[in-house]
Amino acid sequence: MKIKELKKAAVNFGTPIYVYDLSIIESQYRKLQNAFKNLDNYKIHFAAKSLSNISVLKFIKNLEIGLDAVSIEEVKIGIKCGFKKHEILFTPNGVNFSEIKEAKSLGVKINLDSLESIKDFSENYPNDPISIRINPGIYAGGNEKISVGHSNSKFGIPEEFISDLIKMDKENRINVTGLHIHTGSDITKNNEFEKGIKKIFSTATKFKNIESIDLGGGIKIPYFSGDTETNLNDYAKAVEEEHNKFKNNTGKKLKIIFEPGKFLVSDSGYFITSVNYIKKSQNNNFIQVNSGFNHFLRPTLYNSYHEVINLSNPNDQKEECTIVGYICEKDTLAEKRMISKISKGDLLCFKNAGAYGYNMSSNYNSRLRPAELCIHDNSIKKIREKENLEDLLKNQIDIF
Q1: Which residues of the chain have pLDDT under 50?
Q2: What is the structure's pLDDT at 226?
Q3: Distance (Å, rounded) from C-alpha 32 to C-alpha 49?
Q4: Buried (b) or exposed (e) across 249-272, using 16+ Cβ within 10 A?
Q5: pLDDT in tens, 61-101
Q6: Quick check: 68 and 89 in contact, CB under 8 A?
Q7: What pLDDT, in 10s, does the model give residues 339-355?
Q8: Which domains are seen in the chain, by residue range?
Q9: DSSP symbol at 365
Q10: 283 vs 353: CA distance, rounded Å
């Protein structure tokens, strides 16, 4: 962690701010390359929903990474950032078909996850290539809100309807060239990955024109010293084994796609706040900072753990405290943590804030969204301005 650079960024640009160290994104990508080096043909697509700042996206594009988009807006941003259309995979959920038609007109790859949308697609684009997302019926992930591959999830084609797709494919009503699976985020047990991998490769044998398998994301990183993480080498080995079985049984080689979001950018991000007051109570020392879940939602929404560093005083005796925001709700950012002694005005840094940080921020309580910065080539650069009051008002219509 670059305490000196982060403190300099906070002093020069004010707080709250998001800071991304782009070298960490590249380092994470190299880890994936090393783990997957024995795969014949694979492609990494970055999950844009995790962090969609255009400077970060362009940096990622220059690493020769593709894009995973879940909205037509992410598709358009990706194109503006220079991603080639065939390197953008559009995987919507429950959108109006007009959005799918627009994505088709833009020339990007389309991955659909409901029978209803696939039937509409087949009527409008008979026998055009399409990828489909299946629901493997597997409960996996860090918590209920990020487990999306189980039988009660809204995502993917349930197993009981796969036979309908196979029939449509055989009748040339659809042309299934890709299968997609994503069971959840923060998966540590490789047997949970392996169940999904085995299932999707088995399903792939039933489609005559299959060309690719998309294994989604879900690779877990550690959030603190001693935390669990996905064993990348074991994961890669499981993919290799199933792909080899598929090749031996069918004589076909498939392109393997991975869609990491958090794995690539979470570690790169730091969210920095300033201490307004220290409010003491009988059972707690509340550290009140100049932000809240309007800027940094994950601790409240997911009960996620983010290590906190006192940039102003990193090496003092640690004291127990609870860090809270200024929103008129319960917005606890870190509860009963042992942190180096905190004083009014200190700079507090939340680690692992690169993924689903700024992208999930809002203007709740009419608060302004913060600036974004990056560390690149040993310099700190602003990549998004802090909002102002005019930004809050510009789309409102005064009828009086």
Answers
A1: 139-143, 145-150
A2: 86
A3: 20
A4: eeeeebebbbbbbbbbbbbbbbbb
A5: 999 999 999 999 999 999 999 999 999 999 999 899 999 99
A6: yes
A7: 999 999 999 999 999 99
A8: 36-261 (3.20.20.10), 269-393 (2.40.37.10)
A9: G
A10: 28
> For residue 386, which of 359, 367, 360 has the smallest C-alpha distance?
367
State the DSSP H helix or E strand holding residue 90, giving kind and residue range, or none if neither: strand 88-90
Under 8 Å between Cβ of 339 and 317: no
DSSP H or E run through 91: none
User: Helices 22-35 & 54-61, crossing angle to 10 degrees?
Assistant: 40
Burial status of residue 39 (CB atoms within 10 A of its CB: 0-12, 13-18, 19 or more): middle
d(CA 312, CA 275): 11
Decide: residue 293, CB within 10 A, 0-12 exposed, 13-18 middle, 19+ buried. buried
Cα 395 to Cα 390, 392, 398: the distances in Å are 9, 8, 10
Q: Residue length, the chain?
A: 400
Question: 139 is written with which tokens?
Answer: 């409960």
Taking a C-beta distance cutoff of 8 angstroms, is the pair 20, 375 a contact?
yes
How far is Cα 87 from Cα 84, in angstroms, rounded to an integer?
A: 5
> Can you say whether the dihedral through the CA atoms of 98, 100, 102, 105 is positive or negative?
negative
Q: Give the position of tokens 């925001």.
A: 325
